[in-house]
Amino acid sequence: MSKSTFPENFLWGGAIAANQAEGAYLEGGKGLTTVDLLPTGPKRFEIMLGNLESFTPIEGEFYPSHEAIDFYHRFKEDIALFADMGFKALRVSIAWARIFPNGNDEKPNEAGLKFYDDLFDELLKHGIEPVVTIAHFDVPVHLVKEYGSWRNRELVTFFETYAKTIFKRYKNKVKYWMTFNEINMLLHLPFVGAGLVFKEGENKKQIQYQAAHHQLVASALAVKACHEMIPDAKIGCMLAAGMTYPYTCHPDDVFDAMERDRESFFFIDVQSRGEYPGYAKRFFEDHGLTIEMEQGDEELLKANTVDYIGFSYYASRATSTDPEVLSKQTAGNVFASVENPYLEKSEWGWTIDPKGFRITANQLYDRYQKPLFVVENGLGAVDELSATGEVDDEYRIDYLKKHIAEMGEAIKDGVEIIGYTSWGPIDIVSASSGEMKKRYGYIYVDKDNNGNGTLKRYKKKSYDWYKKVIESNGAEL
Asked: What InterPro entries does UniProt report for this protein, alphabetically (predicted)?
């Protein structure tokens, strides 16, 4: 690969989320947020699915987000390490409940606003561009309890107020924004994606797609406000991506794979193209769903489309219409997938498919013809810290090397990619399992699944490797 493969101003860096890194879950006036109610252990998944109501932490349960890796107090130390690696960008999220503890307070919380001022100032001091997600699996619990979260149209107004507040405050510091992290997760983990809790007998699909409409309207209002308030900024959407392969070339399998992809593309079709696609309208009709829209919603969506497509890529998926094949689905990933016999898997059962990364990037660019931003990609693995404080994570280097090489090939294919922020440049709490042992970072954090450890940071082998990748602008892998 030549030095010219990646653009000169390519944004190399890493990505974290407030709820998985910051900790300090009630400090500085912060309110309780949805992720603060996700314990480790058997209750976690039921709460994530919206099947188990939980509005306060349960005594005796361990909540990893409450301390996380204490980024709230240690961000200067961590940013210095990112700067040493040569980061051009760091993707972070703002915790809505740090700015508005209840989500709909009359005035924003100054201590919360100041925290992000300090964070962005520290990044800019080191020449690192903040890339900011407005909502990363984060709804203030008060809005879930009192309004039913995103099933309620009122959240659109609360979100718009929140977005305008942070645009006004950080307009001179943040030039890259995203509205909702992995917006399609609303269909798979409804409490995580949209703070939805279901009562027995409710039509879940109806509630999910109504909530989706509210998020899409809120996203369009945020895009409108961003373009008006920060004309030189770029604001994008964010998709949990990974193309679906048909298990065979049987037309039914091919059609099923297309439908699985469309389930996710639906959100980005609206955010990027500005209208509900025909296949979605048919899906609503076939399933007896009625999406309540207010006058002007369709015009708003059409007039306020995103500037770029942010996406995460960890794995491809596969699907089949054969019941026998379907009975052998892989475990581990949120997205159900039949086992792909051609691919290896991670320790958590996620397929490892670098070529799928190139295919997915091409698929998204062909579909939307807008710049792409790879805002998550990485390998969750068990890392062992040696007695001398070293971590040999050659397997992570191998994973990232192959994926970055395929990203380079996608750029050669003509795909416009503006940056790459790998997931978890420092070990953080796993979003899906709440574990610390599922590590992604170039930096090891001394903490275990039960919250024990010194929180001391150690550079892994991949740290120096990624530093060279950035130094060479992707030419040296």
From this structure: GH, GH_1_N_CS, Glyco_hydro_1, Glyco_hydro_1_AS
Do strands 351-352 and 372-376 pair parallel, antiparallel, or not at all (unpaired)? unpaired
Residue whose C-alpha is closest to residue 315's, from 394, 243, 397: 243
Dist. CA 18–CA 27, nearest whole Å: 13
Say how far apart CA 431 and CA 166 lie, in whole Å: 25
CB burial class (10 A; 0-12, 13-18, 19+) of residue 4? exposed
Q: Strand locations in 192-259, DSSP E?
A: 234-241, 244-246
Active site members: 376
Task: Give the whole-angstrom CA distance, residue 47 versus residue 37.
Answer: 8
Please tell me the predicted confidence (pLDDT) of residue 187.
96
Place of tokens 């964010």: 238
Q: Looking at residue 1, what is its pLDDT? A: 45
- What's the pLDDT score for residue 332? 56
Q: Residue 468: helix, strand or coil by DSSP? A: helix
HSE-up of 129 (CA within 13 Å, CB side)?
17
**pLDDT given for residue 327 in this prediction:** 83
**Residue 297: φ, ψ to 5°:** -60, -45
Q: Where are the alpha helices (DSSP H) in 345-417?
A: 354-368, 394-412
Q: What does the alpha-carbon distance between residue 96 and residue 163 come to, in Å, rounded to a whole number? A: 9
Domains present along the chain, CATH in parentheses: 11-471 (3.20.20.80)
CB 433 within 8 A of CB 45: no
Closest CA to 419 of 14, 3, 2: 14
Tokens of 130: 């903040």
Give the residue from 134, 143, 311 showing the smallest Cα distance to 223. 134
CA distances from 145 to 47, 152, 285 (A): 14, 11, 31
Inter-helix orientation angle 154-170/204-229, to 10°: 30
Q: How far apart are CA 277 and CA 293, in angstroms?
A: 15
Q: What is the pLDDT of residues 43-74, one digit of tens each?
A: 999 999 999 998 999 989 999 999 999 999 99
Contact 66, 25 (CB under 8 A): yes
Q: What's the Cα-to-Cα distance from 365 to each of 25, 336, 383, 407, rounded to whole Å?
A: 38, 24, 35, 13
- Looking at residue 346, its pLDDT comes to 84
Element (H, E) at 423: strand 417-423
Nearest in space to 381 (alpha carbons), one of 392, 390, 368: 392
Q: What is the pLDDT of residue 331?
A: 59
**pTM more than 0.90:** yes
**What DSSP letter does each residue of 257-270 carry, written as one string?**
HHHHHHHHHHHHII
Q: Which residue ranges in the chain fall short of pLDDT 70?
A: 1-4, 330-334
